[in-house]
Amino acid sequence: MSAETVNPLKIFWLSSLITITLGVLMLLHGGLMGFLLFTILVVLEVTFSFDNAVINSRVLVRMSPFWQKLFLTVGIFIAVFVVRFLLPIIIVMLTSGHGFMEVVNLALYNPDQYGETLHHAAPTIDAFGGTFLIMIGISYFMDRKKDIHWLSRIEKQLARAGGYQNLTVFVMLSAAMALYFTVDDAHKVTVLVASIIGTLLHIGLNIFGSFFEKRQKASATKLVGLAAFGSFMYLEVLDASFSLDGVIGAFAITNEIVLIIAGLGAGAIWVRSLTVYLMRSGALGKYRYLEHGAHWAILALGIIMLVKLYHVEPPEWFTGSLGLIVISVAIISSVLERRRNTVSS
Asked: Where are the beta strands (DSSP E) in 127-263?
């Protein structure tokens, strides 16, 4: 579908309706301040996850219409309820030793203690999320078959390094060991385990998807079956890696779990709509460096998450806007490149 035939209203109307409805409910629930906090959380989530939408669109365009619909229906439920509500509760359970209902009661009736307990789990979340995101970034750039480069000097060297088998895994496992020997003693083991799990999960999802993709019929132009399921799970883990850090950041804005779920949930739905728009408008083809910018932004976010293990806390506005800035520069570079090619031809 060409960019000229894409009507944004048909894509974003549902996100707009849900956001307005939730905004009104938060206004009734918490007054003007509740509405303001809800708006801030929506913007925070969209800003944090804009590069996530770019990567999502790259993967989603290769999937069959059935799996695309599944990502936009079941995937939204997973993103809002499972990742932004249930998964943090499970993490608090594992790190605090409390039971499930005890943690749910903390989240609903004692949000201050729930937020504090979740902050104690931040090193585990940052180690896992940071490792997984960095794996995505370096796997993209360390590909010897990659022949389009944005930051030529750096990306060409990384692509050349991709010719060495298992170098990516070696780099990340070395990083995991470095984290083990340098983080606080109280978090050494959990950080090591979380970073190794992040690395193994990325490798496992890639192996799973590649294995079944090769076994598809040669005539199939879109991923179906288990190959599509592997890509679906990859997208959900990617979303979790982005959102968990956002959940922790949300508690710096408000401790009210209802506001957090509503704000981050509405933001997640906007990110899904943005994914559809990028896919249907052919943005990745139109802006040749957009995907590069998204992966540099993902690398930066992964590094920031690991830096947090050393008690360095960049402000939320910096972390969120960094990705937008990198992607904006990539888009501008793409436009200038296209104009130069048009003039030269």
From this structure: none
How many Å apart are CA 251 and CA 113, to the nearest integer? 11
Please list, in sequence order, all residues whose beta carbon lies within 8 angstroms of the beta carbon of residue 327, skipping any fewer than 6 positions away: 50, 51, 54, 290, 293, 294, 297
The highest-confidence range among 13-27, 216-230, 265-279, by mean pLDDT, is 13-27
**Residues in Cβ contact with 101 at an 8 Å cutoff, skipping those fewer than 6 apart:** none
In the beta sheet, which residues pair with residue 63? 223
How far is it, in rounded angstroms, from Cα 79 to Cα 137? Answer: 22
Instruction: Kindly state the helix (H) or strand (E) to which residue 306 belongs, with its residue range.
Output: helix 290-307
Domain positions in the chain are 3-344
Please state the separation of Cα 157 from the chain's center in Å: 26
Length of the chain: 345
pTM: 0.80
pLDDT in tens, 153-171: 898 998 888 888 788 888 8
What digits encode the pLDDT tens for the residues 6-37?
Answer: 777 888 888 899 999 999 999 998 899 889 98
Share of the chain above pLDDT 70, in %: 95
Cα–Cα distances in angstroms (integers) from residue 121 to residues 82, 89, 92, 190, 305, in the given order: 17, 11, 7, 10, 13
Q: How far apart are CA 206 and CA 142, in angstroms?
A: 15
Instruction: State the pLDDT at residue 220.
Output: 58
- For 234, the token pair is 């990859």
Q: How many CB atoms lie within 10 A of CB 179?
A: 23
User: How high is the pLDDT of residue 271?
Assistant: 87
Mapping DSSP onto H, E and C, the string for 141-180 reads: HCCCCCCCCCCHHHHHHHHHHCCCCCHHHHHHHHHHHHHH
Encoded tokens for 84: 């932004």
